Each structure stands twice: as structure tokens, then as C-alpha cells.
TrEMBL record:
Domain of life: Eukaryota
Organism: Babjeviella inositovora NRRL Y-12698
One Pfam family linked to the record: Ribosomal_L1
UniProt name for this protein: Ribosomal protein L1
Gene3D superfamilies: 3.40.50.790
Record's signal peptide: none
SUPFAM superfamilies named in the record: Ribosomal protein L1
């Protein structure tokens, strides 16, 4: 595997990942925990509040869609989407990939009761919403979901974009609406969300991205680390990726949610010592 940050950094990354895995397994041998890649940047990725996850493709999947409890939030009324997605023989219904479908109106009602909102938070692993209602979710779900990006909803489209799509007139409004729903297209988006990782543009100088778990082999984690850094630094992945030019990447570390950060890469300058010179400080 060609490492985007170079062979020397790959060696440093391998050493740090192995040390981190050894530490986690000695401390928490009974369960696997997520491994995060921390990227420090010279400039913020955004100046505005942004809570929309962007998918980063990985060669080693984080999860299977069949392992996730999925909640779908739709426009009102949900009938066109519910009928298509729950119809016998559809790509979604046969595998019971979506556990519950609620409308935006129903979600607002649930959110008024904090106990019901907490139940919703705990009951579902993955929350997705029609892109046409997605912008309303931060005000409805609030800090329970959005503070520290605890359980961010993902945006999906109910059908493939098509300028020639047939629009229908709403019952309560003369405005034409797109009520198409393509189960196969929805399924493909859900599979991508479950399989891959994501990032949220930060208004600070650091972003955190899940790259695997502590019961993985070191090689699989290195592959996912390389995938993440490549996607975020290479211009060919714009406009979603390529948001961190290589000269703006100050440092890369790996850690769990509770461990200290282990060094992978640090941008060289006249006063910077090499990772080799300082590595003993990071031995557990």
C-alpha cells in the first residue's frame, strides 16, 4: 500500500497504532472500542456552524447495514415513501432495513417530550432524513443529538435526481411536488453510510474521524487511515473531499475516546523535533 504521507510516516503510523492497540487490549480486553484519527489543520474548515456529515469511502467497512437500527424521517405526508419502502418485494422491505419511518410533524411531537426524545436517541443506531426536511432537524432534535456531534442524522435522497421527473400536485397546495421513491437508491445510500466513515467540517483546528476498532488488525487500520487522509487532502475528491491542502495539514494522531493521542504525522518546521526523538514520551 502506498501511503499518501510517505513511507516514513507509514512506519510511524504503524508503530503508534500497534502501541495504541496494545494499550487498549490490556485495559479493555473484553470489548472493542472505536479508534479515531485526529487531524490538526492550520485553518478552520468552515467559519459557520455545520452539522452535516460528509461520507469518506473506506476499503475496510465499519459496519453492515443489517447490524444498524435505522430511523427514517420524511416529508409530510409519508404515504408515498412508506408505501414504496414497505411494499413486499422492495429492496428495503424484504430485509427490514428501516425499523421505523416518521414524518417531520411526528418528530416535532416526539421532541416536545424529553423522555420520548431520549428514547428515540437510544433506540436507533442510524438516523437519516429526506434532504428536503434535513435543515429543520437541528432545531427539533437539539443538543441531545447535536451537542459534540453525538448522533448526527444523515441526509438521503428518496429518488435519483432527474430534471425530467414527473411532479404531482399536492392535496392541500397547488404547488407541484416530487413524491418519487426508489427503494434501491435509498438502500445504496444507507449501505454507504453504514460501511464508511464521515467527517463534519470544524470551525476549530481539529477534526475527529472514526477509522476502525481496537479488535482490528493494524494493517486494516492503516489502510483506513490512508483512505481518510487521501480523501481529505487530494483535490480530485472535491467538492466533498480535498478540503485540507497538504500544506495546511499540521498533524495527525490516533486515539480512542479516552486514551492519549499517539503521533502519526507532524508537519516539519525549524523548531520541530522528529517523532522518533519524542516517541518515548508516548509509550504506555
Amino acid at each position: 500500500m502506498s501511503f499518501v504521507l510517505g513511507d516514513t510516516v507509514k512506519q510511524d503510523a504503524e508503530r503508534s497504532v500497534k502501541a495504541l492497540l496494545s494499550h487498549v487490549q490490556s485495559e479493555q480486553a473484553s470489548r472493542a472500542v472505536p479508534i479515531y484519527l485526529m487531524l490538526n489543520t492550520a485553518e478552520p474548515l468552515t467559519r459557520q456552524s455545520d452539522h452535516t456529515p460528509r461520507i469518506i469511502p473506506l476499503r475496510n467497512r465499519l459496519s453492515k447495514l443489517s447490524e444498524e437500527r435505522v430511523l427514517l424521517i420524511t416529508k409530510d405526508p409519508s404515504t408515498p415513501y412508506r408505501d414504496a419502502l414497505t411494499k413486499k418485494g422492495s429492496a428495503i422491505a424484504d430485509d427490514e432495513l428501516i425499523k421505523e419511518i416518521v414524518t417531520l410533524k411526528k418528530l416535532k411531537s416526539i421532541a416536545r417530550d424529553y423522555r420520548k426524545l431520549t428514547k428515540l436517541f437510544n433506540e436507533y443506531d442510524l438516523i437519516v432524513a429526506d434532504h428536503r426536511v434535513y435543515k429543520f432537524l437541528p432545531n427539533i432534535l437539539g443538543a441531545k443529538f447535536y451537542l459534540k456531534n453525538k448522533k448526527l442524522p444523515f441526509m438521503v435522497q428518496m429518488a435519483k435526481p432527474d430534471p425530467e421527473a414527473k411532479l404531482v400536485k399536492g392535496k392541500k397546495s397547488p404547488k407541484l411536488k416530487d413524491e418519487r421513491c426508489h427503494p434501491e437508491y435509498v438502500k445504496s445510500q444507507l449501505k454507504s453510510i453504514a460501511k464508511n466513515t464521515y467527517f463534519v467540517p470544524s470551525s476549530g483546528d481539529c477534526i475527529s474521524i472514526k477509522v476502525g476498532f481496537s479488535d482490528w488488525e493494524c494493517g486494516k487500520l492503516l489502510e483506513n487511515i490512508n483512505d481518510v487522509v487521501t480523501f481529505l487532502t487530494h483535490g480530485k475528491f472535491r467538492p466533498i473531499g480535498g478540503v485540507i491542502p497538504m500544506d495546511k495539514l499540521k498533524g495527525v494522531n490516533v486515539k480512542t475516546s479516552t486514551s492519549m493521542a499517539m503521533p502519526v504525522y507532524k508537519k516539519a518546521d525549524k523548531t520541530t523535533q522528529s517523532i522518533d526523538e519524542n516517541y518515548d514520551e508516548f509509550n504506555f
